[in-house]
Amino acid sequence: MTEAASGPAARTARAVRSARAVRALPAVTAARRRARRLPPLVAESVLPVLLLLDVVAAYPPHELPAPLALTAALALPLLWRRRAPLAVFGAVAAAALVQWLAGIQLPADAALLVALHTVAAHSSRRVTLAAGAVVEAGVLLACLRWATDGAFLTPFVAVTATVVAAAVLGVNVRTTRAYLAAEQERARRLELEQEHLARLAVAEERTRITREMHDIVTHNLSVMVALTDAALATQHRAPDRTTAAMVQVAETGRQALTDMRRTLGVLRADEPDAERHPLPGIAQLGTLAEQMGAAGLPTSLDVHGDHTHLPATAQLTVYRLVQEALTNALKHTPAGTRATVLIRCTAGTVTVDVTDTGPRPPRTTTAGTATATAGTGNPAGHGITGMRERATAYGGTLQAGPLPGGGWGVRTRLLLGSGGATAA
């Protein structure tokens, strides 16, 4: 080492270069952020290459070997800083200690701050504090050795602030990364939950449409079959009754088509029938009773209380319950059976009672035993299930069974405060 290289002027020039390198750290950090768009190896090579070029340009050829070797020892480990941050920090700290022992000031000291930043970004706070203490010890030793007389405190505070900034920025990177990972996990869970809710909604809508289609098809086909049988029986004896029955068959078929279009209209945005034809409700039960009477099941209807305040979905539920009960009475009772429908409406409840006077024929099971066929349809079919689903949607229960004096009864009590958004 020559006298010129170790003189006060040379030390001052190198201290200025080191100070410039420290002040350039934020710009280097910003460049690193922009460099993330590059391949990892290229991005991580930028700082070591710049430090090596800087030392090559700053020293004359005869003084270059020692600074260049120390700069390489400080800068080149940074190429692996993301894969092994603690090992790289140890290597850079060791190189900085050798540099201090050699008494050579280098701009590559910024590599120690970069290594500290990487440790703080990838390690725990305890490890970060330990690494920061190592760097701070190096700062103290450097200032004790290279600070000019009477100017120890100012460079020590300035460099210490830089060390703290590097550690805080690294901790902020780690915190941000953890926050983003938590947000991504939360978004993934929300996406899975939304997919699950969407599948549930699709299943509920499929169940609703199936229930509606069952009620519409079963009721209208039962009525049409009964009317057709009546028309065939009277075609020679009473042609006028036959004509009236066939007219009723055609009207029932048209009503069935309307109901089907309205039910399936939710699947098409351009389906006009859902808006043109309102949902059936309690007001349409009179027409339903007349239709059942024309099909061979004389039906009386009695409605107590004001039903105009009931929501449309609740009225549709009442209508479908009565429709299904009467349809099953028509299907499973002999000629001459009469049915009675009693509706009681209050502010918070609706009670539906459907009774008939006809006995049910026995149903033979696979074991050969005879059991009664329920008035709400075959228990193994969709009728009883659909009625119970409709009642459950409004917090109600369904009771169906033989009456003490003969006949069959279906009783349902709906709680209007229970929602029933899916009851339709």
Automatic annotation (TrEMBL):
Catalytic reaction equation(s): ATP + protein L-histidine = ADP + protein N-phospho-L-histidine
Keywords: ATP-binding, Kinase, Membrane, Nucleotide-binding, Phosphoprotein, Transferase, Transmembrane, Transmembrane helix, Two-component regulatory system
Residues annotated as domain DUF7134: 34-177
Transmembrane stretches, start-end: 87-106, 151-171
CDD domains in alphabetical order: HATPase_UhpB-NarQ-NarX-like
E.C. no: 2.7.13.3
Compositionally biased region (Low complexity): 353-377
InterPro entries hit by this protein: DUF7134, HATPase_C_sf, HATPase_dom, Sensor_HK_TwoCompSys, Sig_transdc_His_kin_sub3_dim/P
Enzyme class: transferase
SUPFAM superfamilies: ATPase domain of HSP90 chaperone/DNA topoisomerase II/histidine kinase
Residue intervals of the Histidine kinase/HSP90-like ATPase domain: 315-414
Gene3D superfamilies given in the database record: 1.20.5.1930, Histidine kinase-like ATPase, C-terminal domain (3.30.565.10)
Record-annotated Signal transduction histidine kinase subgroup 3 dimerisation and phosphoacceptor domain positions: 205-270
Location of the region described as Disordered in the Swiss-Prot/TrEMBL record: 353-383
Protein name (record): histidine kinase
